[in-house]
Amino acid sequence: MSKINANYLKLPGSYLFATIGKKVKDYTAANPEKKIIRLGIGDVSLPLAPVIAQEMSQASLELGASETFHGYPDYEGYDFLRAAIIENDYKARGVDIGSDEIFVNDGAKCDSADLGDIFSLACKVAVCDPVYPVYVDSNALAGRAGEFLTEKGYWSNLIYMPCTEANGFVPEYPKETPDLIYLCFPNNPTGGAITKEQLQGWVDYAKRVGAVIIFDAAYEAYISEPGLPHSIYECEGAKECAIEMRSFSKNAGFTGVRLGFTVVPKTLMCDGVSLNTLWMKHQETKFNGVSYVVQRAGAAVYTPEGKTQTAKQVAYYMKNAREIREGLKACGYTVYGGENAPYVWLKTPERMTSWEFFDYLLENANVVGTPGSGFGPHGEGFFRLTGFGSYENTKAALERIRSI
Ligand code: MLT
């Protein structure tokens, strides 16, 4: 008997962004004189908004005084933060979410990976293709994905839902009936958006087949078109079939601070069991909450100054995304995204594979992006650039790309 979780051995290579990080590190070590511009991983470049940084220092001083010291936080988050979330993210959009339906976490990645814990290993999982790798890799590590078919580049037991130019990067309902469906809109990596009618269609479909949707709304702050849904709960019936994940990383620059939350409605039942109750159990067992300082920082995002200051940052990144989109178009590239999401999804030129284009860009323009095939087989022939760099670097990267 092997003592290890052999599913870890099945994952080909390491996590996509770790692989890219290593490649760039090797290149930099061999070419120390080159100035690399990183538009790969979606990490923010602006500092925290002033009101957030001030709130964090104030909160940390409070921890230094016995009257205002805080020990273990509540597993599901402090009331003050959950109240701000309910008011601003949901009530303001006509959505009624209860405080006991919100679970504050240290960023959406962990819950993206861990939500699978409350579902059977026998569940059939449907993922978009291309997709944020965490959904796939975490199911693979749990043993739910089957075997990795190297030649095809996909897992035998997952249901892949192609997101292509032909379907506008919104998947069709799968032929095989899934138990769990991961959806992320605005989308990472394609930068595509979903209309309210399309999302309502997914909610109706999930209810019809008895599936649970895990909806990742990490990029909702980047929606610029009116009428697009910011939350799946804007759709009728979603509270009976969907879990929603949110992050403070992209709308408020918390990639290094770590804060997010997951909504598990109390009306969401699976096999007659409340998923809210199961998730609470999960959090109590595996998680000790988010620090007081970080939750105070989160609450500052919802203050009037916080809203103004973070909206400015989002606008800054969207300006970058627009520059990339328009700049690449002017060079003759076919591009998507960059309108309701900070990601631009471009077709690689000259039939280059995604990784060939990655190397070409790194070596000739010293610009780092993310190969589309790293997000799934239907990402082959595409490449992702992010708007999260500085404006100056974004302009410089485009100039370099234009020149090659
Ligand atoms: C990305 O680049 O896709 C994201 O930043 C990765 C993440 O949010 O974990």
Which helices and strands, and how do they pair?
Layout: H1 7-10, H2 16-30, E1 37-38, H3 50-63, H4 79-90, E2 102-105, H5 108-114, E3 125-129, H6 133-142, E4 148-149, E5 154-155, E6 158-162, E7 180-184, H7 196-209, E8 212-216, E9 242-247, H8 249-252, E10 260-263, E11 269-270, E12 273-274, H9 275-286, H10 292-301, H11 304-330, E13 335-337, E14 343-347, H12 354-365, E15 367-368, E16 370-371, E17 382-386, H13 391-403
Parallel strand pairs: 1-15, 3-6, 3-7, 7-8, 8-9
Antiparallel strand pairs: 2-10, 4-5, 9-10, 11-12, 13-14, 14-17, 16-17
Helix pairs in contact: 3-10, 4-10, 5-6, 11-13
Could you walk me through the main structural features you see in this protein, from its secondary elements to its overall organization?
With 404 residues, the protein is an alpha/beta fold. It has 13 helices and 17 strands. It has helices spanning 7-10, 16-30, 50-63, 79-90, 108-114, 133-142, 196-209, 249-252, 275-286, 292-301, 304-330, 354-365, 391-403, and strands spanning 37-38, 102-105, 125-129, 148-149, 154-155, 158-162, 180-184, 212-216, 242-247, 260-263, 269-270, 273-274, 335-337, 343-347, 367-368, 370-371, 382-386. The strands form 5 sheets. It has a 7-stranded mixed sheet with strand order 2-10-9-8-7-3-6, with helices on both faces. Strands 13-14-17-16 form a 4-stranded antiparallel sheet. A two-stranded parallel ribbon has the order 1-15. Strand 11 (269-270) and strand 12 form a beta hairpin. The protein starts with 6 loop residues before the first helix and ends with a helix. The mean pLDDT is 97. Bound molecules: D-malate. Residues 41-42, 109, 132, 188 line the site of D-malate.
